[in-house]
Amino acid sequence: MKNIILFGAPGAGKGTQATLLAEKFDLIHLSTGEMLRNEVAQGTPLGLRVKDIMNRGDLVGDDIVVGLIAKALDSGRNELLDEWDQLRLRRACGLGPDDPLPEKPQPSIIYDGFPRTVQQCQMLEFLFQKKQRKLDAVISIDVPQEELVRRIHERAMVSNRSDDTEEVIRHRLEEYEAKTRPVLDYYKVSGRLISVDGSGEISETNTRLCQVLQYMLTR
Ligand code: ADP
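^ thats the input. predicted complex w/ adenosine-5'-diphosphate below
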């Protein structure tokens, strides 16, 4: 049961790579960005609270995102699976839609987009102590600033994310520099940081990440 943080600036490819790694190594993929977008899409009270914050490109409050992670860690393995994963598991076990899913042991988790402030790092440590989990590695996907800007603009042309506009993108990158980059130093001093070159193609970065994950998960 490993806990691995995938770290990177907006546009570094965290979401894409975390999805590929979760599939390959059978990990639970926890993305705070996705969780928050789901809350907004469902119009929950929390979604209503964070909608404008996200649309401005500001970071959502630490207590809110840590609350979402805590809730996800509290739920059983099967509740952590999204619908698509559940379908795959049902097929693999030959189960019908109403049969109960078999419980698996505590899964390994890949965290995508979390923690994003030093305060969140400290809150996560406290949470892990309570849940008897420990942080195994922080993998940073490193991409030069110009390439990040190029990628986010490219994505903005095809995405329907309301925070992918010119002004908001700039602000998201400012938020990253001011509040999220310090997270790297936080983990560097504790010797848990692994940096991976993410400047190339998706498949190149994925090959590098798979090598790191292979090592981490079999240790
Ligand atoms: P990206 O990294 O591409 O900007 P994400 O999907 O990770 O996108 O996040 C989208 C938005 O959700 C962020 O701009 C922020 O408003 C909010 N968010 C996601 N994760 C966090 C977090 N850990 N702390 C605070 N805000 C968050």
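The chain has a mean pLDDT of 90.
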